[in-house]
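User: Can you help me understand a structure? I only have the sequence.
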Amino acid sequence: MGEETCEVCGYRSQLGAIAKHSIVPNEVIEQSGMSKPEIINICANCRLELSKWYSVEVNKMVYDEKDQRFRDRTPVEIVEEYRAAFKGFKGYKKKKITVL
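Assistant: Let's start by predicting it. Here is the structure, written out as tokens:
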């Protein structure tokens, strides 16, 4: 087994501590009709932190200005929410690592 690197924090491991992870959850991929998931290599620490990040940043509902009410996001909108949240998380981690 070769050395693997976390694509978020840069942690390197030869012990299998790096796992493949889909940026967008599989159930959302299926609902949206995405043909291919976006897979990254991520360490256990970043995966846990990313899960917490998603719980705050990804909203399943959106306020519709036209109808003046909340509505469920479409699967495609949710995919974009996850992508944007991941991009924000990666930027946050990069700044955090740079400061350390």
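Now, to help you interpret it: Residues 75-99 form the longest helix (25 residues). The chain is about 45% helix and 20% strand. Let me know which part you'd like to focus on.
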